[in-house]
Amino acid sequence: MLSMVQLNVLIKQAQKEQSTINRAVETNLAVRILPSGKVTWFAKLKLDQRSLAKTLGNYPEVTLAEARRMKSEWVELQKSLPADVRTSYTVKDAFEDWAIKKKQTARSFDYMWMRVNKYILPKFGRLQLKDLTAAALIRAWRPLEAEGHIETCRKLCEYTRDMAIFVQNTGRVENMHDLTHVKANYPPTPKRHLAAMTPEQLPDLFYALERLPRIYGTVWQAMMCQFYTLSRAGEIAEMKWEWIDFNAKVIRFPAEIMKMKQPHDVPITTQLEALLRNMPQSYE
To answer: Cα(94)–Cα(101) distance, rounded to whole angstroms?
Structure first.
C-alpha cells in the first residue's frame, strides 16, 4: 500500500528524472505521476477476462482517501452490472482516455481537443467504439468536405487514427473496425506559395503602411523591429530590454520563446539600433 509520504517521494523522483512513474497504490488502485508533477488516480479491475479502467481525478483535488472511496464504489458497481453493460466502451470514453496520453506530448492539444468536441463527439460520442466505422465518419464529414475544409478532415482522420491505435495497443478494445486509413479519402490539397515581394517594391510597401491610420506608435515600431531582425511576431512581442546588448550589437532571444527551444542571437543593424534607442523603455 502506497502512503502519502511515498507518493511525495515519487513526485520528486519523477520531476528530478523527467520520467513518468506508474505505481500500484493498492488492489484495483493505481497512480500515474508525470514529470510535471501531475498526479492522476486510476481504478483498475480484471473481470471476465477483460481489463477495465477508469480515471478518478488528479491529486490534490482528489485526495488519496477520496480516490480509495471512488475506486471501491466503481469496483462494486462494475461487479453488479450485466456483462454487456459492464464492458461498454463508447467513442467518448476512447477519446477521453486518448486525450490523457496525448496531452503530454501534443503542442497544440487544446486546438485538437476543440476539433474532436466539435466534429466527432456530438454525433458519435455515445456510440460503442466497436461500432464506429470509417464510412460513418466520412458521411458525417461530408459538409466539411463540401465547404473545402479538406485539411480539417485530414486532421480529424489523424486524431481518430491515433485514438484507434492507442486503445488497441492498451487492450481497451479487442475487436473494432479499422479506422487507421480514413485519411486516404482526403488527398492533400496542392500547396500554393504566397506571392513574393521584390526589394524594389519595399519602399512603396512601407510608405503605404505608414499612411494606414492603425499603423502607428508601438505597432509601427514592432513591425520595423520584425523587419530588421526577421524574427517571428511573437518573439518581437515578448522581447525585453535586458535581452538587448548595445555594446555587443546583438539581441539575445532566450530558448524558452523560440520555436526550436534554442537560444538565438540576432545582430543589431545601424537602422535597428537607431529605432531601439528612440523607443521609450516604459509606456507608463
So the answer is: 11
Give me the DSSP letters along 191-241.
P-PPPP--GGGHHHHHHHHHHSTT--HHHHHHHHHHHHHT--HHHHHH--G
Task: Tell the burial category of 208 from Cβ atoms under 10 Å away from its Cβ (0-12, 13-18, 19+).
Answer: exposed
Grid coordinates given for 50: 477483460
Q: Which residues contact 152 (CB under 8 A, 6 or more apart)?
A: 115, 119, 144
Comparing C-alpha atoms, which of 19, 21, 66, 72 is closest to residue 44?
A: 72
79-129 tens-digit pLDDT:
887 766 556 788 998 999 899 888 887 778 888 999 999 999 999 999 989
* pLDDT tens column, 241-257: 999 999 999 999 998 88
At 17 the three-state DSSP class reads helix
What is the C-alpha to C-alpha distance for residues 166 and 54, in angstroms, rounded to an integer?
Answer: 16
Q: Say if residues 41 and 56 touch (Cβ distance below 8 Å).
A: yes
Q: What is the pTM of this model?
A: 0.49
